[in-house]
Amino acid sequence: MTPRLPQTRQWLLPAALLVAWQLAATAQEGPSILPSPVEIGQTLLETLVSGRLPADALHTFAAAIASWVICLLIGIPLGMALGSAERLRVALSLFIELLRPLPAVALIPLAILVFGFSWQTEITVTVFASVWPLILASRSGIERLHPRILEVVSTLHLRRWHALRCVITPAAFRQILVGAKLSFSLCLVVSVVAEMVGNPAGLGWGLVSAQEAMRASETFAYLFAIGILGVCANCALDFAVKHLFPGLAQGN
Amino acid sequence: QTPARTKVRVASVVSAAWLPLWIAKDKGMFEAHGLDVDITTVQNVSTVVGALGRQFEVSGCTPIDIIKARLRKLDVVGIAGNTQELTANQQMRLVTRADSPIRDLADLKGQVVATPSLNGVIHIATLNALRQRGVDPKAVRFQEMAFANMGDQLAAGRVAAAEIVEPYASASMKVGVRTLGNPMLGVADPVILTCWMASGQWARDNRGAVAAWRAALNDAIQYIQKNDQASRAVLAKWTRLPDAVAASVHLPAYTTRLGDAEIDTWIQTAVAVGAINEKASAIGASLN
Amino acid sequence: MNKMSRGLLSLATPIALLGVWGALGDPASPVAPPPQTWLTQAAVMLAAGDLQLAVLATLKTVLLSTLVAGMAGTVMGATLGARRAVSDTVAPTLEFLRSIPPPTIVPVAMLLIGAGTGLDITVVALATVWPVMLNVLQATRSIHPTLISTGHTLRLSPWSRVRNIYVPCILPGVIAGLRVAAPLAIIVALLVEMLATRPGIGRLLLTAQRDFDAPGVFALLLTVGLIGVAVNGAFEWLERSAARRLPNAMR
Amino acid sequence: MTSASGEKTILQGIDLNIGRGEFLCMVGGSGTGKTTLLRALGGFCAPTGGAVFYEGAAFSGPPAGVVTVFQDYGNALLPWRTVRGNVALGIEEQVSGAALDDRIDAALAMVGLQQAAREYPAKLSGGMQQRLQIARALALQPKVLLMDEPFGALDAMTKAKLQDQLRHIQASTGATIVFITHDVDEAVYLGDRVILLAGSPGRIASELRPALPATRDQISTKEMPEYLHARHELLERLHGAAR
Amino acid sequence: MTSASGEKTILQGIDLNIGRGEFLCMVGGSGTGKTTLLRALGGFCAPTGGAVFYEGAAFSGPPAGVVTVFQDYGNALLPWRTVRGNVALGIEEQVSGAALDDRIDAALAMVGLQQAAREYPAKLSGGMQQRLQIARALALQPKVLLMDEPFGALDAMTKAKLQDQLRHIQASTGATIVFITHDVDEAVYLGDRVILLAGSPGRIASELRPALPATRDQISTKEMPEYLHARHELLERLHGAAR
Ligand SMILES: Nc1ncnc2c1ncn2[C@@H]1O[C@H](COP(=O)(O)OP(=O)(O)OP(=O)(O)O)[C@@H](O)[C@H]1O
Ligand SMILES: Nc1ncnc2c1ncn2[C@@H]1O[C@H](COP(=O)(O)OP(=O)(O)OP(=O)(O)O)[C@@H](O)[C@H]1O
Ligand SMILES: [Mg+2]
Ligand SMILES: [Mg+2]
C-alpha cells in the first residue's frame, strides 16, 4: 500500500464515514458516551494547542520508533540467518514458536519486575511483541529467493558481505518490507497498550486517564490521534522507502 | 536545617479515593512529617505488587489485594486505611436501569451484572449480598468492564445491573437508574474499601516512616474536611475530572485506621463467598 | 539431517533453557518460579477441569477468527493488489484502522455486539486480518506481468484466471500471512478474554495474575506456547502440502 | 495505423495492414520496438496515438482468436502445472474428456514434446519450455498467432521442423501469423511478407515480399534464386538500416 | 571426465578436456544436456559420477576466474540496479572511483549499451538484457567464460559485432571460452573446436576442429573453403545425430 498524498480520492472514504457519524451523533437524543466528530475535533484541537497531545504523541512515537529499530536490528539478521542456515533454523524453530504466541500483556508484569514502570518496560514488551513478523518475513524472503540469484552471486565471486548487502538483502527486500511494515504498526499498537498498563506515559496513558476522567470526547480524540499517527507514520515509511531505495521500488 | 527526609516512592491509581495522598503531597503534609514522596499513577495495582520493594515502597490497594498477596507468601503489609464505606457516606451502588423489571437482588438470577474486577472488593461484596439474600452467586453472570463503560452498557441493555461507585454512580443516575442497594454495607458498617500497603521489609525497617505516613494522611484528611473547595481543586488537578464533576463529586469517607480486625472482616467474607479457599483468618496483614 | 536428529535438535534449546531455570530458580520466587512449580500448578488446574475448558474455548476463538481473517485478508489483499485505484482510495482508512489498539476496540465492540462469541471473533479477526492482507497484496503485485498476459492471451474466463493464475501465485502469500496471523490471533484472543472476561485461557491468566499466582501464570503461558507450536505445526503441514501440489510455485 | 509509447516514444508513425491468412515476419535490431508492436497487436498495450483494429473494430484486451507467444517463455508457463496441464490451460474450459486429451496430444506432437508430457516446466530445458508455450498456443487453434522470437532458443534441426510445421498449420487453418525473428533465413523462408523495423523511436523502415511458392521445403526452397535474392536484399537493408 | 544426473540420468560418459585459451563451442539438439554440462563446468552442480577438474584441482562452487552467462537472462539481472549498477556488481569491491567507471564504460561499450546505462533492466528489450549480462561478465575480465546461448536473442548485426568482439577479447586476454549455441554458422565461426552433444542421456557424439586462421572476419572467413567445409560437416553430423 503506497498512499500518494496529493490525491483527493483517498480522503473521500474517511470523510464520508465522518459525515455519517456526525449525522448519527446529532440524531441521537440525550447524553451519550459517543461524542460527535465535531466535538472530538474541538477537543483534538484543544489538546493539540495545550501541548499535551503533541507531547504524548511524541513519547509514543519515540518509543515505537526505538522499538522498531531494535526489531529491525534483531529481526532481519536473525530471520535471514534462519533462512540460510538449516541447523540454526531447526535448533531455534520450536523455541521461537513457543515464544511467539505469548501475549505482551501477560509479560508486562514480568517486565515491570525487572524495569519497573518505565520506558524500558514499554520498549522491551513492544519489541517482544513486534519482532516476530520481521523474523518470519526475512526468513521466507531468503527461502523464496530465485535460485538463479544465488548462482549469480557465486559466479561473480562476490564476497559474502558484499553479496549479502548488494544482492541477497535487496532481492529479499520486498518480502522483508512486508514484515517491517507489519512490525512497525505492531510497534505503535503495542506501545500504546504497554503505556496503558506498564508505563504511565504517552498516548496510551492519555487514553486511559481521559477515560477515567470521564472525558468521552477526549478519549476519542486520543483514539483518533493514535490512528492518525499510524496513518502518518505509514505514509512516512512508504515515502522513506521510495526515496531511500529508489531502485528497490523499481522493477522487481 | 531540616533532617534528611525519608524517600517514599508510591504507586496509586487515579480516583477520588486517593485525594488524601495528593493533598498531603501538594499541601506539604508529607514534608512536614519528614517524608519525600514520589507519586506514580498506574492503571492497575495488581501489577504493582511485583515492583513493591524495588520500584515502590508503598502502593494503594484494597484489603483483598493484601489478603491474596499474603496467601501467596508475598512480603507485603497493610500500613494504613484510606477510605471506608459507611451508612453516612456511601460510594458504592448496585444499580439497574430505571425501567428495568428487576426490583430486588433475587431478580438477578440468570442475568448479567457488570463488575469492575472479578473477585475484587466490590465484586466480593456483591456476591456476599446475593448470598445473604439467599441467591446462589453462581446463578448470576458477571461481566468485567471499566466503570466508565457501565452506563452505556446498562442503557444498551447489555447488562442487567452494574456494580458502580462514585462519581460514576452519580453520572449514571442522571441517565435514569434505580439502585438495588449498597452491597458493601452488608460486609460491615463501616468497612474498609481502599487502603495502603507496603513492602514488608521496608515497613519493618522504617516503622518511623510508616507512622509519619499515617500522620501525614491524617493531616490531609482533616484538611479536606476543612477546605472543601481547595481540596476539590487538587482533585481536579490530579484526576483531570471536568471542573463541574470535580466540584460536585461525592467524596468518600477517609480514614487511616487499618488493623487486623478490618482485614479479618474481608477474609471472612471472601471465604464465605468462595473467592479464596484458605480457612486461616489471622494472617497478620497489617502492621500495628 | 534425519527426522530424529531434527526433532532432538529442535527440542534442545527450550529444554536446556528450562533445565537451567529449573536448577537455578527459587521455587518460592513470587515472580519467576522455576518450571517444576508450573507443572504442579497446571496439575491443579487440570484436576479442576478449568484448563481443558479454557484451552478449548481459546482454540475455538483462534481457529474461527483466523479463518475469518484469512478469507477477508485474502480478498482484500488480492483486490488491493490487482487494482491500484482501489488501494489508493482505501489505503489511509485501512492504515487508520490498523493503528487502533485492540484494547480500545473491546469496549466499543462490547457495546455494539455484546460480550459473546461474536465479540471474540470480531475483535481478533480485526486485529489479525492485516498480516494476511499485506502478504497477499505483496504476492499479488509480484505476479510476473508475462504470466498475467498469458491469462489474457489465452482468453481464460475471469474465474479460470483467478483459479489458475492468481490463486496459485498468492497462495504462498496467504500462508505466510496466516503464519504471522495465527499467533497474533492467540495473543489478541487472550487479550479479549482478559478485557471482556470471556471464557478462555486469558481469563485464567488474569485471575492468576490478580491472585499473584506466578506458577499459575507460567503454567498458562507454557500452555499458550504449546498451542502456538501446535498451530504453527499445522501451518507448516499446510505449507508443505501446498508445496507438493504447487511445485516450484512456493519460492 | 498505430504509434505507441511508454515514458519515451518507442514506436512512431507505424502504418501496417495485415491481411487475413498472411504470414508476416518482423525483423530489426535489438530494442527497435518489435516486441512493443507485437504487444500492441496482441491487445496488451494501447497505443498513445492512433489505433489498432482487428476485423474492422478497435479493441482493448486480446481479441478472440488472437494468441500471443511471449519472448520470455520462462515466465509464461505455470510452474505448478505439468506440460499437459499447461497445454490444457487455454482449452479445458471449452473441451473436455477424450477430446481434450486428443487436442493436447496433437499439440504436443506438433512440437515434439510427447515424451515430456508429465514433467513440470522447471525440469525442461530452455528450448523445451519455448516449444511448450507454442504447443499451448497451437492447441487453441487460433485465427491469429503472434509470436515473439519463438524459435530463438531452438537448435537448427528442431527449428527447421517447427518452421515447416508452422507453415503447414497456417496453410491448413488459414491462420494469420505475425512472427518476430532475428534469423534472416527464417524470416525469408517463413514470411509471405517481411517488415523491417529500425531506428529509435522505431518505424517500419522497409518491406519485402519474397516471391516464393506457398509450399516450401527446407532444401529446395532455400536453393531457389528468389530465396537467395530475397535473403540478400533483406541483409542489405538490415545493414543499411543499422547504419 | 564427467557424468551428471538429476532424478534421471541427463549426461553419461562425458570425457572432455578443455585447453587453456581454447574457444570451445557446444551444439546439440534441444534437451541434450548442454546447459547441464555447462553448469557442471561452472561449479553449480556436482556430477553424480566422475569429477570435474579446473587447473588440476576438483572444485565445488564456481572456481575463481570462471564466470557463467546464464540462458535465462531475465532472472540473472538485479532489477533494482540500473544497467551500470548491474555491471558494477562483480567489480565494485576490487576497483573504485574513476577506474570503476572506466571498466563499466568499457564493458558497456563492448556490447553497445552505453545509451541505456541509466535504465533499469525491466525497461530493456530481451536482447538488451542479454547483452547486459554479457557486459557484467566481461567487466570481471574472467579467465574462463561459460556462455549459454548468449547471442540467442540478438539480431544478426548485433550478433556479428559481438562475435568479433568476443574473439578479440579472447585473443587479447587469453581467456578460455565455452560457448553454447544453436547457430551452426556461429559455432564454426567462433570455435577453435566444436563439440556436438546428442542422445538422451546426452553424450559427446562428435568433435570438430575448423581449420580457420586465428583472426577471423565476418565476410572473408565465411567464404573460405575450410569454413564452408566445417559448416557442412557439422550440419551433416547434427542431422546424423538427430536420426
Ligand atoms: N516497460 C518498458 N518501459 C519503458 N521502455 C521500455 C519498456 N519495455 C521496453 N522499453 C524500451 O522500448 C524499446 C523497444 O523495446 P522492445 O522490447 O520492443 O524491443 P525489441 O525490438 O523487441 O528488442 P529485442 O530484439 O532485443 O527483444 C527499448 O529501447 C526498450 O528500452
Ligand atoms: N532441474 C532439473 N531437474 C531434472 N531434469 C532436468 C532439470 N533441468 C533440466 N533437466 C532435464 O535435463 C535434460 C537436459 O537439459 P538441458 O537444460 O541441459 O538441455 P539443453 O541441452 O541446454 O537444451 P536447450 O538447448 O533446449 O536449452 C532435459 O531433458 C531436461 O528435461
Ligand atoms: Mg523483443
Ligand atoms: Mg539450455
UniProtKB/TrEMBL annotation, chain A:
It comes from Cupriavidus campinensis. Residues 1-27 form the signal peptide. This is ABC transporter permease. Residues 57-241 form the ABC transmembrane type-1 domain. Keywords: Cell membrane, Membrane, Signal, Transmembrane, Transmembrane helix, Transport. One of its GO terms (cellular component) is plasma membrane. It comes from the Bacteria. It holds the Pfam family BPD_transp_1. It is a multi-pass membrane protein. InterPro entries: MetI-like (IPR000515), MetI-like_sf (IPR035906). Belongs to the binding-protein-dependent transport system permease family. The chain crosses the membrane at residues 61-82, 94-117, 220-241. GO terms for biological process: transmembrane transport. PROSITE patterns: ABC_TM1. It is found in: Cell membrane.
TrEMBL record, chain C:
One of its GO terms (cellular component) is plasma membrane. Its main location: membrane. It holds the Pfam family BPD_transp_1. CDD domains: TM_PBP2. The chain crosses the membrane at residues 38-59, 66-85, 105-132, 165-192, 212-235. GO terms for biological process: transmembrane transport. It is found in: Cell membrane. SUPFAM superfamilies: MetI-like. Belongs to the binding-protein-dependent transport system permease family. PANTHER family: ABC TRANSPORTER PERMEASE PROTEIN MJ0413-RELATED, ALKANE SULFONATE ABC TRANSPORTER-RELATED, MEMBRANE SUBUNIT. This is ABC transporter permease subunit. It comes from Cupriavidus campinensis.
Automatic annotation (TrEMBL), chains D, E:
PROSITE patterns: ABC_TRANSPORTER_1, ABC_TRANSPORTER_2. Residues 1-224 form the ABC transporter domain. GO terms for molecular function: ATP binding. It comes from the Bacteria. Keywords: ATP-binding, Cell inner membrane, Cell membrane, Membrane, Nucleotide-binding, Transport. CDD domains: ABC_NrtD_SsuB_transporters (cd03293). Belongs to the ABC transporter superfamily. This is ABC transporter ATP-binding protein. The lineage of its organism: Bacteria, Pseudomonadati, Pseudomonadota, Betaproteobacteria, Burkholderiales.
